[in-house]
Batch of 3 targets.
Target 1
Amino acid sequence: MTTAPVSATPPAAVKQRLTGLDAFRGFDILTMVFVNSIAGMRAIPFFLRHAAADQDVFTLTDVVFPGFLFIMGVSIPLALARRRAAGAGTPALLGHIAVRTLALLFLGVILVNEDRFSAAATGLGKDLWYFLATLAVFVLWAAFPKAAAPSKKRLRLGLKAAAAVLLVVLAAVFRGQGPGGQVTWLQTSWWGILGMIGWCYLAGSLLFLAGRGDRTVLAGAIGLAAALYVGGRHGALDFLGPVNGFLNVASLFGSHTAIVAAGMLAGTLFLPGSGLASPRARARFLAVLGAALLAAGFVLRPLHGFSKIHGTESYCLATAGISALVLLLFYLGLDVLGGGRAAAFLLPAGRNPLLAYLLPGFIMNASALLGGLAGVDLHRFLWPFAAAGGLAGMLNAAVMTGVVLLLTALLTRAGLVLRL
């Protein structure tokens, strides 16, 4: 079964948002904020920690990142359809994909270098550097209404230009310290979460455009991507040489892209002309897709086991299946049964995910700078139970996650929405 090509999607039919998808995204982002906050604490239950690389298991925390990749996959057909319906041709779509990919890679590299930052070599304190960098990101990628007055547009464009210059300067002066004590510049390392999202977004978007949203193509791509990982583990990609070390092709374009392809397959259900317009048909499709992916993950488990760290094919397929089933629950509960009010608190983070993701680090950098000026340890005030861990530490993390949610809602209402 095929879907209508993206180019054929009429404008009026792609403007309505899926409340369930936004709520699922918000839930996933806030869960990510929470589990990142308790990482490293003592006495945390196993199911809330990442499983070790050699453990043949995945935890609740290990499902968060593939959940976001799946959600991104669902969003790709909808986003490209909206742009196509607004008059964007293929060159414009490719340009948008390239810019968004580069932005995600840039942000990913910045964040992944935080642990190796050298204040002495850079000439700036780490908290000040990352505070300024995040502030510049907020300004540079803040969306503003197209109908704004010309004077406001000029002011905002000027601020964006200044933010871009600041980011370039900060990147130029950045210096880190390597494992041997050597001074280094920004390193790609493993690209970070945002960088991995960037590469998978690039692969998924190009795949969707090349296949014109055909479900058969997307289903085949899931299998091919999983096979690419398996082949990579057994030497089939060795001919790529140093490219593997730079990109980890088997993981980024193999198993993790399989999650995005599964999400795109689910996303085609909500395109006009999909042939599955009724809630019952969509629910049946998502249920079968989720069960099939979950079963495939368990069937392939003997090959390389479940491992988030290695991004094994069985782990990625199984977590993609879980994500499809969770999307089904959100869709039925919010879009079909109309329970949107119950999940309204999740929507700001779901519709402004980059802001919610960056806010925890920004809060910590800002509190460290303010505490330094006032001679007060604000970190201890914000995180009184971080060292204790356990239930107290988890409650502390839950409160801080609530703070992030509240700030995201307030800033979103004030008009600060980040769009790459």
Target 2
Amino acid sequence: MVDIMKLKWLETDKVSDVCLLKIEENKLPFLKLGNSNDIIIGEWSIALGNPFGLFDVNDQPTVTVGVISAKNMNLEPVDERFYLNMIQTDAAINGGNSGGPLVNSVGDVIGMNTIIYSTGSGKGSIGLGFAIPINKVKKIVDELKLKGEIDRNFYTGLGVQDIDEKIAAYFKLQNARGVIVNSDENSLPKKPV
């Protein structure tokens, strides 16, 4: 068990729900990070974690087993966090499993347990758990190490506008997510008029 005093929170990316921690300790056991691009629907998945704070009772993480039910699942945003291209598993993921590894049958980490669909009480698993693919986690962590943040600003030369409910209704879109191009730099006046 790691002494909490040796755990240092370095950076966080709220949008993806991933943070970078540093443990100031040597020779700790670790799991190999796999390749989430290689997962297939129907393969075994194992979720490790600390549901409902049971680690305090037993001093060990818990393990649940299931299969990969789906890949590339896009969920609705929750508290300004966007869960896109998620791994769906029926391995029970409960409150307290978030941040724990989802591993394949050989113990390689293929995802980070993150969110569940639950019953009305909002606490228990109904067989719909989701993990952030480990390749995405690795990419985010690398950028947090390098830049201290995830840079989502980019210049395209296009004039864009967020899609709100009115725009979604006008264009008969299924949801109000994303942006719409309303001009490009070629259509803008070159000099003020």
Target 3
Amino acid sequence: MLILRREYGRIMKKYIETEILSRYDHFDKAHRRDHADYVIRQSLELARHYDVDMDMVYAIAAYHDTGLAIDRKTHHLESGRIVREDRRLSEWFTADQIETMAQAVEDHRASSDHEPRSIYGKIVAEADRQIDGMTILRRTIQFGLSHYPGLDKEGHWLRTQEHLSEKYAEGGYLKLWIPESPNAPRLRAFQELLKDSARVRELFDEIYDGLTSFQEE
């Protein structure tokens, strides 16, 4: 039975690698394949602390941003719909498991107004946080360049400041769910950095100039 389950897991992962993760190649630079791979790795690492189905954890992480192909604002809901409508998943998961996975995908968004409905949702939400100051800055600027091409450098700086303040500063809307995660101390360190606006501006200039000079080439 264990051997059969492992074989099912291998086939499932092969399907996801070829048919699902490849979709990230067409998203903005902040949500490409490397981001999906990171969330998968982090999800599986966090899941070790809980009695959960690791194949479900893997699939949830892989599908979590697939809805970006349809609409960014509601991408978490679109991602949940994609999970529910993917008939291949019924080859490896029960209907109840698929619903749990769809809900977890829907609940992963940092700006969500409710707590994830299951431990699976908390795991992928936590894994998706990726609390690293330079990574956050780079992804924020990359998203701005991709979605607001009409802004000049100062416009991107103001947009970056507003986003970082609303999401990551003390009192921001980002919430953490897994106590075993290293995100809490990383978030505190990033919040201290955000208090030094001059240093944040230096880092912004460095990243922005590097990204735009590359685009010009």
